[in-house]
Amino acid sequence: MSIRTARNTHRLTGKAQAHVRTALLLACLAAALCLLLCSCGSSTQATTAALTTSSAPSTQRTVGGVKSLSAYARVYNSNAMIDTLVVEYGTAVVLPSKPDQGYSTLYEVKDSTSTYGQRQVVAVYTNSAPEKRADRTSVEGPYVIIELNAVGPDASSLEKWSPSTDAGTAVTEKNGVSQVRTDYSGLSVIQCFDAKDAKGTVERAKGTLPQLQNEDVHWPQLREFAIDQVYSSSAGNLHYSYYVPHDYDPSQSYPLMVVVPGENAYLVSTDRGTDPKSAGVNLVADTQVIAWTTAPEDVIVLAVQPAATDAAAAAQTWELIDWFRGQYSIDPARIYASGYAGGAQIMSQVVDAHADVFAAYVNNSGVWSGGLDNAAADGLALYFYRPLGDETVDANSFATPYLQLRDNYRYAGMTSDQVDALLVLDQRENAYFDHQGATSYHAGGRMIFNDAGIVQWVLAQHGGTDGDA
Fold first, then answer.
1. DSSP 90-125
2. Cα(171)–Cα(185) distance, integer angstroms
3. Segments of 277-410 assigned E as strands
4. What's the chain's Rg over C-alpha atoms?
5. Tens digit of pLDDT at every position of the chain (469 positions)
6. pTM
7. Beta bridge partners of 424
8. Which DSSP letter does residue 47 get?
């Protein structure tokens, strides 16, 4: 399955723009250009991911009065679900009045892959465009918008929460590995009435609508992302995605946030190449990446998707960061990073070796694998985050580098107040993650940037004085 991204080629600079123009003008040389772009230190676009970002449904042949069925998926607090379905009829249809029994008497949505419960239809209305309306009222048009209930905790309650249904899930996890759902053959949308136009002519008789296809499942939160790119480093290819604000102005400078996921969202390879269900899944397996697109200020985001946790992965990651920070107008004093679980093992090596580049690093639910000397010398701000009940990373191994770093910062001549401002140890109570529906306490670390206070702490840090960007 080929990825379809919202990548804007005008954002690319210099050499990358030239490659894109050449590829378009000289199609007969595409194979040669591909070899050129895959050379060391270059970046190319992969074609294996399963995430679709455009908002328009794909062109389909009309089947019994229905031109297309599309859906919108969203990353929620602790899950990723389809939250809206869009039925495009051949002409504008008129909906029956809302019955007392609710919208489920107009449309039913069933998912045979669900192990418990089904989704509720909370709104149905017509529209002239394939998009939701805030007031949920009908306007004349060929699109019927079917909104499903959000599957998330009650913000007013502190009770332990778990989802009441997994129907319409858009990201699955098997044996600890996250995958983008690509098979929606188990999901059925049933039209429970005869859909008629304004003259009373039946456009589509009641019954099950055409099958939803993966290429018609869209992720609006990713519209500004370039998804599943490939950087050819000296140690091999490294996959990544990135986000640039839609109003990016090269005359301004922006903070950069580098996010490296845990092993659950690593790139999975098969004997036939990259598994399309894993390419780009680090964007939607949790909120670690997407949270930065709604930060209090515009942030450029680099989402690295490694395939392993080792020194080679750390070297690749640094090469990518070093290259990427030269592609956009990035404030050299505001380069930040976060590593979760295995990603923390990678990034702790990177920030130790290049502490002068980073202003702050969040070591999230992972073992510190780097050295402990350079951070103090460069005054790097460090945030250590861990659920108290973490089943994978024990408290002693997590706290030891933090305590050693405190000593190093004091030896470097800092006062206790200065050290407290730069080093934070945040070990959260289990109830915090129970309320958000964490599948395990270790997995609770994936929700770290749901906390706006941590996002603000990161953005408040300034450093990275090497001046090479």
1. SS--BPPPPPTT-GGGTEEEEETT-SS--PPEEEEE
2. 15
3. 300-305, 330-340, 360-364, 381-387
4. 24
5. 333 233 333 334 443 444 434 433 333 333 333 333 334 467 777 655 688 876 666 555 566 799 999 999 999 887 899 999 999 999 999 999 877 778 989 999 999 999 888 899 999 999 999 999 999 999 999 999 999 998 888 877 888 988 889 999 999 988 889 999 999 999 999 999 999 999 999 999 999 999 999 999 999 999 999 999 999 988 889 999 999 999 999 999 999 999 999 999 999 986 556 788 899 999 999 999 999 999 999 999 999 999 999 999 999 999 999 999 999 999 999 999 999 999 999 999 999 999 999 999 999 999 999 999 999 999 999 999 999 999 999 998 899 999 999 999 999 999 999 999 999 999 999 999 999 999 899 999 999 999 999 999 999 999 865 644 4
6. 0.88
7. 383
8. S
Long-range (24+ apart) CB contacts under 8 A made by 272-277 are 273/48, 274/46, 274/48, 274/239, 275/48, 275/179, 276/1, 276/48, 276/49, 276/50, 276/180, 276/182, 277/50, 277/179, 277/180, 277/181, 277/182
CA dist 197 and 214 (Å) reads: 29
Q: Give the separation between CA 194 and CA 196, rounded to whole angstroms.
A: 6
The residue type of 421 is A
3-state secondary structure of 375: helix
Strands ordered across the beta sheet of 225-233: 42-45, 225-233, 236-243, 300-305, 254-260, 330-340, 360-364, 381-387, 423-428
DSSP state of 269: E
